[in-house]
Amino acid sequence: MKRFLLHVAYRVRTGVITLLGCTSAGVLQAGKAERVEYEGAVYHVYRVNPSAFAKLELRWLGKDGLPLGGFAGLLNEVSGTGGNIAFATNAGIYERGPKPCGLTICGGKEQVPLNLQPGEGNFYLMPNGVFYLDDVRGAGVMTSAEYASSGLRPRLATQSGPVLLRKGQFHPAFNADSPNRRLRNAVGVRTSDGQVVFVMSDRDDREKGRVTFHQISRFFLHLGCQDALFLDGDLSDMIVDPPVDFLAVPNTFAAMFVLLK
Question: Could you give the CA distance from residue 197 to residue 181 in angstroms, rounded to a whole number?
């Protein structure tokens, strides 16, 4: 069984140990993961074009009604229906269960309602927000309060927090000089064409892979995203083109994004 990590996938495909030192956002390609260095930090970026939106799903519960729990459960569920995964990553913050802390819509069905209650932690760092994918309007990120009055009924949605960017503006609590550097992943929407952009700071690089909220927000602006939503922190991970004998690293997630081949 192969232990398939994202950076190993790069090395297998390219035959080199270090893929990129510094990359312009303009060369990133949809359907392929890229390792990008920007302002001294290292990120993994995966883009999904609108033409592939029909293959992008959000999954939390399996066919048995129980949480999939992580990549292992997701892989078993997908392979059981003859599917293959091109890309997967964890979605929003969760509580015991694992159950998403806020709005979760999978396949057009609301499985967890919108959460507008106050609380402690990143999810409740207001404004928090919703990433959604609507088959008519496309993808977007808005604050939870905006979503509550939007009338949207998207095919998939996840609520998390905090909002990194809204209409090009940083979250008011972010500090450019913050010392709080962590592993982080997030999702944004490119303004020019509605492309969905998934970003995760590098898990293995203990220095360049630990970033602040302000830092990852600046990276999304660099990628052309005016709206972006934080997904989660230290547990974050992503897989790209896992082989048939893929052995998932043990993890616990609630909802997960998955792009099917």
Answer: 21
